[in-house]
Amino acid sequence: MSAHAAAAPTRWTRRKEARPAEILEAALAVFAEKGFAAARMDDIARRAGVTKGTIYLYFPSKDDLFKSLVRASISERIQEIARSVESFEGPSSDLIRMMLQGMGSFLLTSDRVVLPKIIIAEAGNFPELARFYREDVIDQGLGLATRIIERGIARGEFRRLPAAHLARIFVAPILLMAIWRTTFARFDATPYDYEGFLDTHIEMLLRGLAAEGTRP
Questions:
Q1: 163-183: per-residue pLDDT in tens?
Q2: pTM to 2 decimal places
């Protein structure tokens, strides 16, 4: 058997293993361009360089494809941050900085930032996708923020304020960043200073949370 023939199965296996990620990348591009409703599996297959039947080998429906994209793009990122939070032993203010800076960096550098915009635009026509995003992304993010705030209150680092309200204040500017970058940024006369905005949010949040007699 020739060396070329022996190598072929390895290349084929590697290609097969990479295919779901390639399909997800193609789906992201099509969803970003057309929205969820107008995107067709044919468009995604063409962008990925595969047949439509190949997509269905990995993803049973367009809904499943979108959910897989959200899980791989955002849910896993939140879970990574959550694992870091669970093992962290320092001040809760440092946890807040770590989480918000991590989320901000993701939104400023990743093309996945378009996903929240798609959900907001399509929620009325696809309530099941909105429910999925609420449970898989928003509830996870709010739950993580709530745990950090409750940790700070329990340690006497933060004021005793309603954690459920604080968690929403915690993440609201992050959502604004995502919407602004994907919807309004193209109309800015000069590029907006998102990093400065995030630093200002963190500073204000920590000053508002700080227990009396403590430094933010």
A1: 999 999 999 999 999 999 999
A2: 0.83
3-state secondary structure the chain: CCHHHHHHHHHHHHHHHHHHHHHHHHHHHHHHHHHHHHCCHHHHHHHHCCCHHHHHHHCCCHHHHHHHHHHHHHHHHHHHHHHHHHCCCCCHHHHHHHHHHHHHHHHHHCHHHHHHHHHHHHCCCCHHHHHHHHHHHHHHHHHHHHHHHHHHHHCCCECCCCHHHHHHHHHHHHHHHHHHHHHHHHHCCCCCCHHHHHHHHHHHHHHHHECCCCCC
Give the domains, in start order, of the chain with CATH numbers.
Answer: 1-59 (1.10.10.60), 62-209 (1.10.357.10)
